[in-house]
Amino acid sequence: MDRDNYKILLVSFYNDEAYGLRQLHAILSNRGYDARMLFAKNRIQDCFTGQLNNVTPKEESLLADFIIKFKPDVIGFSLVSSNFSLYKRIFKRIRALGNFKIILGGWQATLNPENSLEYADIVCIGEGEDTLSETIELLYSAQPINNVKNLCFKADGKIIKNPVRPLVQDLSLYPVHVFNNSVAYFIESDEIVQKDPYFDNTRYGTMIGRGCPYSCTYCSNSFMAEHIYPGHWSRMRYRSVDHVMLELRGAKKNLPKLERINFYDEVFLPKMDWAKEFVYKYKEEIALPFYCMFYPGTCSDDMAKLLKSSLLAGVWLGIQSGSERVRREVFKRNYSNSVVREQVNIFHKYGIPVKYDFIFDNPFETFEESLESISLLLDFPEPFSVNLFSLKYFPNTKITEMALEAGKIKERDLNDRLNADHHNIVVQHNNDEDRDFVNNLTKHISALAAQSKVKDEKARIIDTIDRYRNRKKRVP
User: Is there a single domain that holds both residue 163 and residue 312?
Assistant: First the structure.
């Protein structure tokens, strides 16, 4: 069989950008395989309540029918833990459709490979580019995969977990993404179409590097740094500026509705020399507004000024809580509110819009500590916007261990063991009334801040908080 007759299907749920899956597809396509991408359902979700448009039975049938028609030799699923329950339901349906191998990768596979292996033939732990490429080569030539690093599989009824390979330092070695409607399919609104959803998208998402130097307890990156790549994951690895430009030129040329670029690096932390080269070439070759993420205290005045000159249109800033105790003891994010304010003022100085991330639904945070977040928001220069999140418990993260030990959740509540896809665990401060008060007040402040009206309503907001406190004191 020629390579171009060896069929591989890569599937993503609720993520039509799917940067990692697209990277894998580019590698397999570059090696001559008939690799296709299927994006199942677009994400329409309230980031706080977790309500979203779940995959329908008809859409499950469309996926099954496509597999029967395409006849893949390998199906790869890229999963986050909150999609695992959906995948388990679909797995029961597709496993009987053929003799193809099923490979699971992504955060779910890395965080909990043994559990994942109950619903797959092969699980990939950690970064998968070289691992998947090697695995497909061996499967294609009917050779054993027993010695492939990063793989977890069963042999003679026993689970085998191979050691992980060293991290690739030169990320520019990998090919850039493929933009071609002939290799992509999209399931949405009970229909399947042969089209890459990126062709209707106004944004393009990418990353300049990998790794994270921080150890936030709720984040899977801390698990990678401690258990998968100790001593290495926290060291940032960057692509060359030319490689980033090659990818972005392709996106700009091929995506007709493209209006902006989103950089999804956990923290945008390039060195100044890299940033200067990037700014020069980005303005010359791309010239589209772009957005990126920062950790408080990591964007200097000089960096903000430089990036603003290169069409930086906005940033996401993860604060998570206005309580220094909660950040330090619960989230392991060690910065003061004075550092937050200094960072905020730098962005304001250069007219860079900010969207702040806060985790308000947190059982380790008291009602009064939640109000510290409100107080911090009231001091921020306007305009701004806010992302509100519920604390989520993914397998084997530090916050999950803390919550289990404290009795905040049970093992059955973990996000990879739920029966409803994208289910969120609803946690509370002291009672539902406190929770609703804080969340509704934050949404109100966010709506005012977008119109630069918080300062006009600040006294009234503070009075509302005081009246609520006084009423709480009178309740027996």
Answer: no
